[in-house]
Design brief:
By secondary structure, the chain is α/β, with parallel strands linked by helices. It has one domain: P-loop containing nucleotide triphosphate hydrolases (Rossmann fold). The protein has a 6-stranded parallel sheet, sandwiched between helices. Helix 5 links the parallel strand 5 and strand 6. Helix 1 packs across helix 9. The protein is globular and about 45 Å long. 44% of the residues are buried. It binds adenosine-5'-triphosphate and magnesium ion.
Length: 211
């Protein structure tokens, strides 16, 4: 498969863009892929995670929107399989640039009215640019009506990933140590969730490619 770009977008702060980006990048690497994280958020959360990390991979580069096209060209030349773009939690030129560059946009969303209400502008940009996208429910309770209600609501706007990312300490503790959850606690539930999510994303990318 040629190089694929996945952008993590939503203007809602704290919904889980950075967490999903680095956890998925690590999961992809564990499956033998060469992964690059592009941090486009001036807050630099992914960059801070990388600085706390001992391993040099996945590779991470901190870039401005004006540098994105060039960074993607270089990534292709360097032989990366996957690029994970982390974006700011505000609607900015960086968000639109990341969406434009993406093969697939992942929209993390907590099952809360605030997160749900914040998604339409992101969806509008994705639709305008005719991009494939999927919602991922994050920081969810392990089960219950909040998740099913959120799933129902988001389904009206677009595709919803069937795998939940539950609220678990391991996501926070892994971040603090510069690890993905699959490295931090390989046999834990968070690791299992991320592996399932990653499997689902890869299948989606393959289907998009077949079209
Ligand atoms: N599934 C989860 N369980 C517990 N904590 C989580 C989970 N996902 C994310 N968090 C925590 O929630 C906070 C916000 O997550 P994260 O930084 O990934 O969001 P973000 O969308 O990138 O935010 P911003 O818009 O500010 O960049 C972090 O402290 C992170 O550790
Ligand atoms: Mg972030």
């Amino acid at each position: 498969m040629a190089m694929r770009v996945i952008s993590f977008v939503t203007q809602k702060g704290g919904s889980g863009k950075t967490t999903l980006a680095f956890c998925c990048a690590v999961a992809a690497q564990e499956k033998g892929k060469r992964a690059l994280i592009l941090d486009m958020d001036p807050q630099g959360t992914a960059t801070a995670w990388f600085k706390d990390r001992e391993s040099e991979t996945p590779t991470l580069a901190t870039i401005k929107s004006s540098e994105l096209a060039d960074a993607i060209k270089k990534a292709e030349k360097a032989g990366f399989d996957l690029v994970f773009i982390d974006t700011p939690g505000r609607d900015e030129p960086a968000t639109a640039a990341a969406i434009r560059a993406a093969d697939l946009c992942i929209i993390p969303c907590r099952p809360t009215p605030g997160d749900m209400k914040a998604t339409p502008p992101t969806i509008a940009t994705i639709n305008r640019l005719k991009k494939d996208a999927a919602f991922v429910l994050t920081q969810t309770p392990p089960r219950g009506y909040r998740n099913s209600e959120a799933d129902k609501g988001l389904s009206m706007l677009g595709m919803v990933c069937p795998h939940l990312i539950v609220t678990r300490n391991s996501y926070q503790d892994a971040q603090g140590r510069g690890l993905g959850v699959t490295e931090f606690e390989p046999d834990g539930k968070a690791a299992e969730e991320i592996r399932e999510l990653w499997k689902w994303i890869i299948k989606k990318l393959e289907k998009i490619h077949e079209r």
